[in-house]
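Blinded run. Sample ID left blank on purpose so nobody reads anything into the name before looking at the predicted structure. Input follows.
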Amino acid sequence: MWNSEAPLKLLQSMPTQLTIENLKVIQQTIDLDKYLNSQALKRDLCGQYAPFCKNCDKGILKYPCAVAYVLMMQAQGSDVEIAATEEELNIEPEKAEEAYVIEPVKLEDVQTEPEKRPEPKKFIRIAIAKRKH
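Blinded prediction complete.
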């Protein structure tokens, strides 16, 4: 369901010490894919979208999906670390309403695998005509 390749490629292109800007880009990539999958399934996938959702703490973090993804990658042995401070990561209580306003991302900016569509069925139609005398 979720495109694990897009955030992985992003993470591999980033430094091992992730800044708040790096987390923002990862969050946008995950949000875009989560949004597209939510639209396709006609339901909100927040909290059940990917394996890292169990580590999500969307109540206090600015980029909860990105942080949860990085924690999952660390558990799998990746040497990536979050260099952002707690002050940068935490949502200020008075700005909690604005925290989930997602900045638009152009589809051209996110590299994803092309959607695999089934090939149309090919068949031959055979007709037999009888000649009238």
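Unblinding after everyone has recorded impressions. Residues 20-41 form the longest helix (22 residues).
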